[in-house]
Each structure stands twice: as structure tokens, then as C-alpha cells.
């Protein structure tokens, strides 16, 4: 298993816990609808004490903005939301204030490169958790949450994802420059994960 990462297994083989160093940046990746926000809510409920772990989830930021901009079509302010989200994420990584858990689809190469660069500058170690979910299952997840990604955009995510997972298994640094480890989880395995520990 890669340096800085340890998994604890159920006797039945299900993953219960992942452990990382205190200076880690964990990128929780997956195509839209894969269940990233669901897993983060499961592990780090909104409003609870996360024990010093800083959690970045674009859905949480969107929920806060929705209170003010809810009457404006989401498509109009979505680009600004994404910009603000990545500014926050990259600033936190650059400052070297780990541990961090970051929600990202990982299918945008420029974002992956920026995360790697900022982590290097901030002296933080990057690890990846990839939720490997089929496109049709992810689509169902989008419908369930009431927000569906445009067909063209979703097709791009789905097209890039299998190669990303395959490359991550061989070299996590291909996904995010400098990444030390990559753990690929199915939806069932993610549902059984109880905690991510640091330090």
C-alpha cells in the first residue's frame, strides 16, 4: 500500500476506515452524481465538529449561495460559483493548512495540475479517493438530487473517467502531480466507509 495510507477492513472485506498523515490533502473524486457529496455528508455532517479537518464541497457552497440567489437560474451563476470554490480550495492548499478533504470531479486537467502545484508549494501530501460509478448510476444520482448535468458535459466526464481510474491505479501522480496514493471505491464500498482519519 502506498506510503501515508492505511485502510482498515471489515472481516467481510468491506472498507471501514482510511488513515492519512496530518498534512494530507485528500481529493474525493468522481463523475457528477457518483456520490461524493453523499459520502462527505456521511463522514462530515454539516454543522458538526470535524476535529480540525477542513472539508471543501462545492454543493455546500452552492446551498449557501442558493439562499441569496435562489430566484436566479442556476446556470447564470454556476461559473462564478465554480470560480469562487476553486479559489477557496487552492488558497487553502497553498497555505499548507492540512488536513483537507476536497470534493472534485478530477476530470478537468487544469484543476488537477493547479491542485498539485499548490500542494507542492504548501508542503502538503496529496492522496486520492476515486468513486468509480457507472455513468447510468451517476445519472440516477443526479435525478435524485434534483440537478442534472448537461448531456454534453456529462458525456465528457464519462469519457475521461475510465482512463483516469486506470492511470491512477498505476501512477497517482498522473491524476494530480505529486499524489502519493489512489484508492478506488465502488458505491457499496463508499457506503460502508465510516471515517477518514488523519495524523
Explain what the structure shows.
By secondary structure, this protein is α/β, with parallel strands linked by helices. It has one domain (21-185): Rossmann fold (3-Layer(aba) Sandwich). It is built from eight helices and eight strands, in the order E-E-E-H-E-H-H-E-H-E-H-H-H-E-H-E. It has helices at 36-43, 58-69, 74-95, 109-122, 135-145, 151-170, 172-175, 187-192; strands at residues 5-9, 15-20, 24-29, 54-56, 100-104, 125-131, 181-185, 195-198. The strands form two sheets. It has a five-stranded parallel beta sheet with strand order 4-5-3-6-7, sandwiched between helices. The protein has a three-stranded mixed beta sheet with strand order 1-2-8. Helix 2 packs across helix 3 and helix 3 (74-95) packs parallel to helix 4 (109-122). The longest helix is centred in the middle third of the chain and has 22 residues, at 74-95. The protein is globular. Mean pLDDT is 86; it is low at 6-12.
Tally of DSSP helical segments: 8
Distance between the termini: 17 Å
The level 1 CATH classification is Alpha Beta
Q: Characterize the main sheet.
A: 5 strands, parallel
CATH-level-2 architecture: 3-Layer(aba) Sandwich
Query: Would you report the number of β strands?
Result: 8
Q: Strand content of the residues, in percent?
A: 15-25%
The domain tally reads: 1
Weakly predicted, low-confidence segments:
6-12
Output the CATH homologous superfamily: P-loop containing nucleotide triphosphate hydrolases
SSE pattern: EEEHEHHEHEHHHEHE
Q: CATH fold name, please?
A: Rossmann fold
Shape: globular
Give the integer mean of the pLDDT values: 86
Widest β-sheet, arrangement of strands = 4-5-3-6-7
Multimeric status of the protein: single chain
